[in-house]
C-alpha cells in the first residue's frame, strides 16, 4: 500500500503528530489567552493604588489598557478559530481519505463479515466526533489552560499562600482519574459498539425497503431495529449516568476549593495581611483559574467519545486483513490468455467447505467461454478469483503466462470490464457514470460508446440528455437502460477481457434485442467470460464450461454438449421444464 496508516496509537499522539499544520491557529488561540491574562492585576492596581490616591487619570489609563487587551483578545480569537477550523478541515479530509483508501485494500474475506453501516459509521460519524473533540481542545481547552495558568502565576505573585490553596485541585484530579476514567472509557466503548450495530442494522433495512415492503414484513424489520435502538439507548443512559456522577463530583470539589480560597482570603483581609485589591483580584481570577477544570468536565464526555471514535478509526486503518497482492508487473495491454491451474478455494467465512476443487482450465485470447451450472457451483467464484477479489487457497492463476501474484492487480483490473446482471450506477449524471470507466474520456468518445451500446436514443429523450441525474443506483432508469449504460461504460474502457454476468436476463424482448446487439459489438476481438443463467443466451459461445459442486464436469460447444446427453443436457432439460437444479 502506498500510504502508511496513522503512526500514533492515541488521539493525543495524532494531535501531536499534526502539530506542523496546527501551530499557527493554536498559537493565535494561545495569544488570545495571554492578551487578557493581566486583567486581574489591572483590577488590583486600580483598587489598591489608584483608588486610595484618588487618581482619576490612572483609573482611566488602567481601564484603557483593559479595553486594548480585550480588543487584542477579540482579534486573536476570531483569527485563531478560523485557522484552526481550516487546519482541522484539511486533517479530516485526509483522515477520511485514508479510511476510504484502506477500504480499497481490505480483503473481501474481511469485508464480507462487516456490515456496510459499521464501515459508514467509522467513515462519517467517528471522524466527525474526532473533529469536534480536537477543535474544542485546540480552540477552547488549551487556551483556557494557558489562561488559567497565567492567572494563577499572577495570583501567586500577589499572595502565594492563598494561591497554594488552589493546588488542592491536583489531588482532586488524581482521585477523579483513578476512580472514573477507566469506567467512563468502558462505558464509551460499549456505547460505540452499540451505535455501530444500530447503524449497520438501519443501513441494511433502509437499503432493503423494497424487500421489506414487498413481503409486508414492516413489523419484523421495525422490531429488529427497535431492539438495536433499545440496546444503544441503554448504553447511552448508562454513559450519561456515569458522566453525571463525574461532573457532579467535579462541581462539588471545585466549589469546596473556591469556598476555602475565598474564606481564607476574607480572613486575611480582615487581619490586614491581604489588601482588598488582591482579594478582588482573587475573586476575579478564581473562576479563570478553575476554568480549565470546568472545561475538562464539560469536555470529558466528548473527550472519551472522541477517543473511542479514534480507536475505532485506528482499528480499521491498522487492520491486517488486506489483499496480499504485491506484484508490480505491467505491459502495454493484456492479451487475454487466462489459465486456472489446480485452483482450489474456500471462502474465509467457511474455510472447511471448499467451493472450488482443483480447477484446471485454459482460456485462449479472443475466446468466448461460458460458465454454467446450478447456484453454488462456483461460477461467480472463478470470476472473483480472476479479478483478484480473493486469492486461491491452492493452485494458481496465470495471466498471459505470468502468475497472477506478479502482476500489479489494480492494473489488471483496469484491463477487465464487468457487465453485471443488475448493473450498478452511481448517483451522478449519465456522463459521470460513463466517464467512471475512463476519467480522461472526451465527450465525443462518450457519445460514441453510448451509440454503440444502443443507449444514445433513450439518452437524447431524457430532460438533460447526458447531464440527466440517474438517482442513487440508477433507480430513475429502467433495467434495460441501466444495462445499456453499463455496456457503454465497458466499451469506453475498451478492455481486452470482458466478463458478462448474464447481462440480458430479466429483460423484455425489445430491451434484450438492443442489448444483445450492443454485446455483440462489445465482445468482438476480446476474451469473453459469460456467467450464464439462461442457457439460450450462450449458443454462440466458443466453449461452455459446466460446473457442479465446485468441479469442472463437462466442456464443449452448445451443440456437442446438448447431443452428449450429460450434465449440460440435463441442465438444459431442467431449465426448459422450469427446474434449474442440475442432477449429475
How would you characterize the overall build of this protein?
The protein has 584 residues and is an alpha/beta fold. The chain contains 20 helices and 10 strands. The strands form 2 sheets. The chain has a 6-stranded mixed β-sheet with strand order 6-7-8-3-9-10, with helices on both faces. Helix 3 packs antiparallel against helix 11 (276-317) and helix 8 (169-207) packs antiparallel against helix 10 (218-271). Residues 1-5 and 579-584 have low confidence and may be disordered.
What would CATH call the homologous superfamily of the largest domain? ABC transporter type 1, transmembrane domain
Our count of domains comes out at: 2
Overall geometry comes to: elongated
Can you identify the CATH class of the largest domain? Mainly Alpha
Query: What is the string of SSEs from the N terminus onward?
Result: HHHHHHHHHHHEEEHEEHEHHHHEHEEEHH
Q: Which percent range fits the helix content?
A: 55-70%
Give average pLDDT, whole number: 80
Distance between the termini: 45 Å
Low-confidence stretches: 1-5, 579-584
Amino acid at each position: 500500500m502506498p500510504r502508511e496508516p496513522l503512526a500514533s496509537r492515541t488521539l493525543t499522539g495524532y494531535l501531536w503528530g499534526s502539530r506542523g499544520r496546527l501551530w499557527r491557529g493554536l498559537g493565535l488561540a494561545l495569544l488570545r489567552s495571554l492578551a487578557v491574562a493581566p486583567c486581574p492585576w489591572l483590577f488590583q492596581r486600580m483598587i489598591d493604588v489608584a483608588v486610595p490616591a484618588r487618581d482619576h487619570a490612572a483609573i482611566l489609563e488602567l481601564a484603557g489598557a483593559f479595553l486594548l487587551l480585550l480588543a487584542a483578545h477579540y482579534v486573536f480569537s476570531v483569527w485563531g478559530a478560523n485557522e484552526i477550523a481550516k487546519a482541522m478541515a484539511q486533517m479530516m479530509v485526509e483522515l477520511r481519505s485514508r479510511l476510504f483508501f484502506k477500504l480499497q485494500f481490505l480483503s473481501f474475506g474481511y469485508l464480507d463479515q462487516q456490515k456496510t453501516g459499521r464501515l459508514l459509521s467509522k467513515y462519517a460519524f467517528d471522524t466527525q466526533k474526532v473533529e469536534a473533540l480536537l477543535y474544542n481542545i485546540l480552540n477552547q481547552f488549551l487556551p483556557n489552560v494557558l489562561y488559567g495558568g497565567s492567572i494563577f502565576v499572577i495570583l501567586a505573585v500577589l499572595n502565594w499562600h492563598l494561591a497554594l490553596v488552589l493546588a488542592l485541585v491536583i489531588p482532586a484530579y488524581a482521585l477523579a482519574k483513578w476512580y472514573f476514567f477507566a469506567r467512563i472509557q468502558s462505558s464509551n466503548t460499549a456505547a460505540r459498539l452499540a451505535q455501530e450495530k444500530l447503524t449497520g442494522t438501519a443501513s441494511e433495512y433502509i437499503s432493503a425497503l423494497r424487500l421489506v415492503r414487498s413481503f409486508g414484513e414492516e413489523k419484523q424489520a421495525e422490531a429488529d431495529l427497535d431492539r438495536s435502538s433499545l440496546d444503544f439507548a441503554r448504553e447511552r443512559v448508562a454513559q450519561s449516568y456515569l458522566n453525571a456522577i463525574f461532573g457532579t463530583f467535579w462541581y462539588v470539589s471545585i466549589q469546596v476549593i473556591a469556598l476555602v480560597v475565598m474564606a481564607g482570603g476574607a480572613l486575611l483581609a480582615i487581619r490586614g495581611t491581604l489588601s482588598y485589591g488582591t482579594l478582588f483580584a482573587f475573586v476575579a481570577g478564581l473562576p479563570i483559574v478553575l476554568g480549565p477544570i470546568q472545561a475538562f468536565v464539560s469536555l470529558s464526555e466528548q473527550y472519551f467519545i472522541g477517543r473511542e471514535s479514534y480507536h475505532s478509526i485506528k482499528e480499521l486503518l491498522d487492520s491486517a486483513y488486506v489483499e496480499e497482492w504485491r506484484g508490480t508487473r505491467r505491459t502495454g495491454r493484456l492479451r487475454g490468455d487466462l489459465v486456472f491451474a489446480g485452483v482450489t478455494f474456500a471462502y474465509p467465512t467457511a474455510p472447511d467447505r471448499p467451493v472450488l476443487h482443483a480447477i484446471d482450465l485454459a482460456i485462449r485470447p479472443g475466446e468466448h467461454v461460458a460458465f454454467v451450472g446450478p447456484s453454488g457451483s462456483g461460477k461467480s467464484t472463478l470470476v472473483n478469483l480472476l479479478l483478484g477479489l480473493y486469492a486461491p487457497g491452492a493452485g494458481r492463476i496465470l495471466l498471459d503466462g505470468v502468475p497472477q501474484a506478479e502482476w500489479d492487480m489494480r492494473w489488471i483490473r483496469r484491463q477487465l470490464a464487468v457487465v453485471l446482471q443488475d448493473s450498478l450506477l452511481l448517483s451522478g449524471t449519465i456522463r459521470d457514470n460513463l466517464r467512471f470507466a475512463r476519467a480522461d474520456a472526451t465527450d465525443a468518445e462518450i457519445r460514441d460508446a453510448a451509440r454503440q451500446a444502443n443507449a444514445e436514443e433513450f439518452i437524447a429523450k431524457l430532460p438533460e440528455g447526458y447531464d440527466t441525474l440517474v438517482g442513487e443506483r440508477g433507480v430513475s432508469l429502467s433495467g434495460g437502460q441501466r444495462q445499456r449504460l453499463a455496456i457503454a461504460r465497458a466499451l469506453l474502457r475498451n478492455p481486452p477481457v470482458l466478463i458478462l454476468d448474464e447481462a440480458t436476463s430479466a429483460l423484455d424482448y425489445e430491451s434484450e434485442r438492443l442489448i444483445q446487439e450492443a454485446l455483440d459489438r462489445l465482445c468482438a476481438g476480446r476474451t469473453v467470460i459469460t456467467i450464464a443463467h439462461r442457457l439460450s443466451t450462450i449458443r454462440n459461445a466458443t466453449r461452455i464450461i459446466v460446473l457442479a459442486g465446485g468441479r469442472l464436469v463437462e466442456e464443449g460447444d452448445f451443440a456437442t454438449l446438448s447431443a452428449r446427453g450429460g450434465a449440460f443436457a440435463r441442465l438444459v432439460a431442467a431449465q426448459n421444464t422450469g427446474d434449474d437444479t442440475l442432477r449429475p
